[in-house]
Amino acid sequence: MSNLVPQNFTEKMQYCEVLAKSNLVPSGFRGKKEDIFVAIEFGLMVGLNPMQALTNIAVINGRPSIWGDAALALVKASGKLEYIKEYFEDDNTAVCEVKRKDEPVAVIRKFSFEDAKQAGLLNKGGTWKQYPKRMLQMRARSWALRDAFPDVLSGISIAEEAQDIEVVEEREKSEIKASLPKKEEPLYKIVGNLLMEKYKDPVAIKRFVRQVLDLPENVELKGKYLQNLTEPELKTLQTALQEEQLTLQAEKA
Question: What is the model's pTM?
C-alpha cells in the first residue's frame, strides 16, 4: 500500500476487513466490509480518499449517497464553482443559487415547507422535526448541485434527499400492497388447516380422508397427499368437516 491507499483488489479487501472491525468507523459500516468496499470505490470516483469516503458516504436503502456538506466541498474543490448563495424567502422557502464558471446562467433551486408537506416529510421524526430549516436547505442544495455539477458528483445521490426518498418509497409500497387484492390460499391448504385443527393426529386425519372419500386401503396416503387430490375431492372433505362442526355446535346448544 502507498499512503494507506489500497493498490489492488486484494489489498482493498484486506483494508476493508480491518476497517469493518474498528469502532472508529461510522456505526453503519461496522462489520460490513462489502459496504465499506463500495463506499470507498464511490469515494475514489468523486475524489475522496478512503477515510473521507467512510465519513461522508452513507449507504441508504442499498444505494451509496454523499452528505450535503461533502457534496459542496467536492464542488468547491473542482474549481468549476463561480459562486453559491443560500438563503430563505419569507422564512418558509430555502433557496440555493449556484453558478458554474463555464455556464452563462446560474442554477436556482427552491424547496419550501409546502413542498415538504406534500411529500409527507413534516410528519417524519428525526431531523425533519428537530431541524426543519436545515433539511429544507439541504434539499434545495441537493437539487442545485446535482443539476449544475453532474460531472463533479458523477450522479451520486445526496444523503439528505436519499433518506427522504426512502420514506416516500416505503409509504408508496405499503399503499400499493394494501390496495392489491389478497391472494386466496390454495384449497388443499384450507382443508389441511381444518383437518389439523380438528384431528391434529396424522393417523386420525388419514382415517377421516379414507372414510369420507371412500378410499380403499391399498391406496397409500404419503407425503403431501392433499396436494394430489382433485378439487371435487377437496371440496367433499371441506363440506364434511363443516357439517361435523355444525353438528357439534348444535349438540352443544
Answer: 0.58
